[in-house]
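During the no-cost extension, the postdoctoral fellow (Dr. R.K.) reprocessed legacy sequence entries with the updated structure-token encoder. One reprocessed record is reproduced below for audit purposes.
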Amino acid sequence: METANSTQEAGTSFADIFSLEGKLALVTGGGSGIGLHIASCLVQAGAKVAITGRREPVLQEAVALLGSRASYFVNDITDLKTIPDLIQVIETTLGPIDILVNNAGINMKKFALEVTDEDFDRIVQTNLHAVFSITRECGKRMVERKKGSVLMITSMAALYGIDRVVAYTASKSAVGGMVKALATEFSPHNVRINAIAPGFIETPMMLTAMNGDPSRRDKAMDRTPMGIWGKPDDIGWAAVFLSSEAAKFITGVSLPVDGGNSIGF
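Re-encoded structure tokens follow.
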């Protein structure tokens, strides 16, 4: 049986077990919002980070903030045919990808009866098809190298019903299922698949939306036991933990980072 000191006896320090030093992380949609905060936390944990997105000026500003450990690649992940080349270019330029964070995603607030097939397809293409495609391409390489960590971003909408986000809910619920399926296939090759399910996180976009819909804002806060909004870094540090050796026996889970919202009444 392992003792309390067994990790230290093996030569691994507390700092080392959470460190991402020597790792390369790819964060899609990492130029702004929660993605930027995830990238920042990964950098602070010692990783090199590649961020992707469609808007080069936004990516340039993000890399200036993130520092010398960060690089950017302009890419539209909904253009699935470009993804294999994207991964090839990143690995040729920076080295093997150790961590993939599937952060890029879009939402749409509309009553279900008003959602067109085109609306639905657009959300699912970004939040589901693109996520699978880039995970597959990185997964091929990770499985061959026998190491890697893939993180998905799901949502409270995948855990309970929220009105006016049917396409988003469908896509994020599917991602949660994909985590479990991929974990059964990838984990025997030492490639872990996990997800973070953010609660209500305080970003300018979220605050604008909530302040424009006071009844929804109050409902969200009332069912959050901690009684506060989360901060973007709360998601970033959860990503660091799940990507680190401290989580080496964790796979196939969707971790709510939500102040208790998913279990609140």
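The chain has one domain: 17-204+233-255. The CA atoms of residues 200 and 206 lie 8 Å apart. The remaining legacy entries will be reprocessed before the final report is submitted.
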